Amino acid sequence: MSRPFFDSEKIRLAFGFACALMAAGVHAANWTGNGATQDWTDPANWNPAAVPGVTQVDINAGTSEAYPAVIGADVEANPTTLNIGTGSNTSGYLLVDEGTLNVSGGTVIGKSTIAGVNNGYGRLVNKGGNLTLREVRIGVSDGVSNPFGSGELIHDSGSLIISNIFYFGIGGNAHLKADANFTVLGATHFGFRGNKEGPAYQLMELGPMTASFKSVLIGNSANVNGKIILRGTTLESTELRVRNNASATGVISGWGKIHGGTLYNNGKIIADGENVARDLDLRYYHTAANLGSTTMRDGSGWYAINKGRILFTAHSFYANQYLVGDRSQNYTLILANCARITVSGLQTGNWNCFLLAPDHPDVPKIGFALKSVKSIWNFESPAFTSASVTFRYDETAVRDTTLLRMLRYNPENGMWERVATTYDAINLHFTASDLAPKGETNLGFFALVELPPPTLLFVR
Question: Predicted confidence band at 163 (pLDDT cuts at 50, 70, 90)?
Answer without folding.
Answer: very high
